[in-house]
């Protein structure tokens, strides 16, 4: 892939990392159901 590194790529990586952290952190409150 010959794409230059743009701010959009770093923003996307940041969103992915934030999503992984949110999903993997221990839940303090379990949603019933």
Task: Give structural notes.
This protein is mostly helical and 33 residues long. Helices cover 55% and strands 0% of the residues. It is rod-shaped.
The biggest sheet, with number of strands, parallel, antiparallel or mixed sense and barrel status, is: none
How far apart are the termini?
44 Å
SSE series? H
Structural class based on helices, strands and sheet pairing: mainly alpha
Q: Quick one: overall form?
A: rod-shaped
Oligomer: single chain
> Strand tally, please?
0
Indicate the mean pLDDT. 84
Query: What fraction, in percent, of the residue positions are helical?
Result: 40-55%
Q: How many alpha or pi helices?
A: 1
- What is the C-alpha radius of gyration, as a whole number of Å? 15 Å
Report the sheet-strand fraction.
under 5%
- Pick out the low-confidence regions: none
Keywords: Membrane, Transmembrane, Transmembrane helix
Transmembrane segments: 6-23
């Amino acid at each position: 892939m010959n794409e230059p590194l743009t701010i959009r790529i770093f923003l996307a990586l940041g969103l992915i990392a934030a999503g992984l952290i949110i999903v993997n952190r221990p839940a303090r409150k379990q949603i019933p159901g």
